[in-house]
């Protein structure tokens, strides 16, 4: 289980961390690596982030290590010094150069100051040993402190820690060697090494190999693979990144060192992990987010129950996006992740009968938790298949993982004996007649009517026509509304060929990723021209700000870049005046200036959604216990994360 910052590290929530990791150890994870702990205050990721600098703190970590060992697990603690990526004014770095992703300029360390940082790493590792950890992972990648010494754009030093690469690489070597000396031989030291920096002046492959060999020589037990600096403008873990997209980089290193290598990034299924090992890419695979999605991932794989695994869809919505919002992580597909001490699905004392109306993520999650707790559940769906809006998401290029979510839901419905009634638009009278103990209204949403003059023109389609009915769409298209669905529709329309997410070479070429032996950092400076977009798309919104401003913090930029790469025109601050044979007439600003016809073959409405909850009133009037959830409850900013969380929590209480 790879390291992942969950926010539980900050503020020392040791009981919650213990419950979270113990559950994963019980699920047969071979080796857990914790989220990052700073070796000193300067190395904090943010103010008061988790750190390990005193024996008192080490004693508190015992709760965690004891809980994991009680489940026969092994656990290593990650030592993370944030360097110039720190989100606080005490940050330090090799040189006084601010990163493009933080507002604070770091203080440049003196030569003696560098020495102090090394001592802090060593002391932190000793304390980790005292705290009962089986090892440490020294975070040397992703553009954090240690990594910053390796690269010239962050290291302008003229002392022994700067200059030639042989000098610049000394810091990690010193840290590993002195840590080994301090902790003894029977303690795991993992070094996380940036194998492909994905920034223009990143390391050459020869430099990376030289470092890996030196790290092995310095006494590391295992080398883990880091992919890309955080400031890199290439996606490395988002859902549109192909599965196992970077295992080939670790494979290149296999012939260079003899200690075990771990590979990581976008490995979310046992079959993918197995293939990577069978292909000789690495000795071990590391999965971080998939362990949030399903604590029993390994156990289910081992027992031949891979089809029961709740698969991480790499959305980042409840994990990384929470971290950036200073919230404790969770998981979109598993709201219990990191909340093991407060959200539990306890067997019901009396078995009761429930009807769930609507089989989108909210309805299915409610049905599954109710059934898991021992209740009898009928799930009604007006459509011919379960899934609601997930069935639209799954056809968007780069969102193929939604197929896995649907597969998981279908399998769990079977296992938990939820009775599904497809093609059934159940009415209040029928529900009354069946005398349920409770009805959960999860009937979803309807598209908002933007009320534009001429909108009944045959060229006008809704997102449902495009994504669900797959109505043919012309070559020139205007998309009205640039929210999550407007972006999805635009991405769907520019891509007629198979999705690059399913074709690694194509994806690598699209983003300009090359063999780091060819170009520094593995980024091509002469990127081949992207394949021509399938359609000419204009994406419109009435707001003046950035398009997609409400998309996920860690993924919005990827969607915007994808649309830009496909020449999508993004126009804001518009008024929709009229639709006619020529296309869409818009004006700009409050004063409706510069009337302009956007000449298109089709216009697709993606103007938001409104709740659909017709059943609520008659059911409540009949005195039936009724609960409205998901989009039927609040349509604004609805997403699967809120739907699943709300449904699961309701079902845990009923
Ligand atoms: P949304 O994100 O709220 O966007 C609605 C869009 O319609 C906005 O761009 C809005 O922009 C426009 N709009 C609102 N009222 C309008 C009106 N009367 N006339 C014309 N335009 C109007 O809603 P959505 O796109 O339907 O998505 C629904 C939910 O699913 C959202 O919460 C979304 O985040 C989520 N979702 C997320 C993703 C993802 O990638 N994370 C993907 C799909 C859906 P203006 O008001 O500026 O015109
Ligand atoms: Fe994976 Fe999304 Fe869950 Fe994060 S929130 S672990 S990316 S499914």
Write up this protein.
This protein is α/β, with parallel strands linked by helices. Strand 7 (222-227), helix 8 and strand 8 form a beta-alpha-beta unit. It starts with 13 loop residues before the first helix and ends with a helix. Bound molecules: NADP nicotinamide-adenine-dinucleotide phosphate and iron/sulfur cluster. Residues 289, 292-293, 312-319, 331-333 line the site of iron/sulfur cluster (SF4).
What number is the mean pLDDT? 96
Any low-confidence stretches, pLDDT <50, length ≥5?
A: none
Principal-axes geometry comes out as globular
How can the largest sheet be summarized? 7 strands, parallel
Give the N-to-C terminal Cα separation. Answer: 33 Å
Could you tell me the number of beta strands? 24
Instruction: Identify the strand order in the major beta sheet.
Output: 1-2-5-6-7-8-9
Give the ligands present: NADP nicotinamide-adenine-dinucleotide phosphate, iron/sulfur cluster
Count, helices: 22
In terms of DSSP E residues, the strand content is 15-25%
Task: Assign a percent range to the helix content.
Answer: 25-40%
Structural class: alpha/beta
Radius of gyration: 26 Å
List keywords for this structure.
seven-stranded parallel sheet; binds iron/sulfur cluster; 654 residues; 32% helix; binds NADP nicotinamide-adenine-dinucleotide phosphate; globular
